[in-house]
Structures are given as structure tokens and as C-alpha cells.
Amino acid sequence: MTSVQNTPHTHLTPKRIAVLISGSGSNLQAIIEHQKNHAHLYQIVLVVSNRPNAFGLNRAAAANIPTLTINHTDYASRELFDESLQFALDKAHLDLVVLAGFMRILTPHFTQHFLGKMLNIHPSLLPKYPGLNTHQAALQAGDTQHGLSVHFVTPMLDSGPVILQATVNIEPNDTAESLQQKVHTQEHLAYPLVIEWFAQNRLQYKDNQAWLDQKPLIIPQQL
Hints:
By secondary structure, the chain is α/β, with parallel strands linked by helices.
């Protein structure tokens, strides 16, 4: 497997990033740790949760990152929630929105608004197993490999162009829980790397494709 090597980029203005979460925020923590050594490239300026009790909010507070809760249960429709979320994100003047365990299906209007400026990490080797329960799906299918995909977000769920994938082997004694832990370990390496590429201006979305170093990613990069 091949991977793209980092190249030095100087005189970049740090990108302003928001991270959206719904739960424990383990990927958020990995991004926070990565940012400590890459503050010249990007700054997490806001962490937003749709759940007020999400533990990831504590992680953000511990890192002195501003947080915001927009509780989806306070809104009569998905459209009204997304409208409120979009207003808050626009107010922060962001360069990139990072979905990190954000358990909401976003409306086409919202995803179109942030097209090319929003990333998601999905626990499967897309296009395999979009949606939920991916680890169990891989086991039931008898797969020998599983993994994750980092992709640009488009209006179609889990269908945006894939940037980077990481693969894990499925052993005979693996369960959905053990497989999830394997994938999580790789997620914490993969997501910060893709954010770094974006912050270095190496990664773009154009012509409905992901481009890295001025070339379309016909095949996703491998971690």
C-alpha cells in the first residue's frame, strides 16, 4: 500500500475548523492532540454537539475550545435544526467543518452550503456498508477485511468522494465490539492526517471529486 508523504508548506494562514460531535468525542480528542503540533496549520475554533450530555464537550472544554450545544430535540423539523446549525457555523467564519461521530443526517441544503468544506469519517470501506451497524454487517458478510473511509460530505448519505481509507483484518474471533476498537485506532490516525492535508491546501473538492496535490483521487489513499 502506498501513502502520500507530507511536504512542507510555509506561510499558510491557519485554517479555522469546527468539529461536530454527538458522543464521546474520541476522534475529536485525536484531532485536538494533532493540533497541538500543527497549530500553524489549523485551529479548532468551535465544537458543536446536538446532545447536551456528549462527553466530547468535556474534552473540548479541557482544551479551552469554545463549545456550543444545539439540541436537535428543540426543533420541530430537520430543516429548522440545520438552519440553526448553519447559522452558528457561518458566524464562526470557518474554513472546514469536521463531522466526528455526529449522528445526524444533514439536509441537502446544508450539505450543499458546505460542499467542499465538510469532511466525514465512516466506519467501513465505502462504498461498502453505508449507514449504521457497519461492523456487524462486515462480520455477517464473512469479510476478511474491514476499515474506515474519510470522505467529503455531499447530499447523498456516505456517498461523497473518498479521500483516505485504512484497512483492518477481521480475525475468526472478532466481534462487532472488537472490530470497532480496531477501526477506532485507525480512525485516530487517519482523520488528523486528512485535516492536515486540507490545511496545507493539498486537498480540494472539485468536479465532484477529491483532489490531492493537484491530481484527482481516482483510488483513495491508503493509511
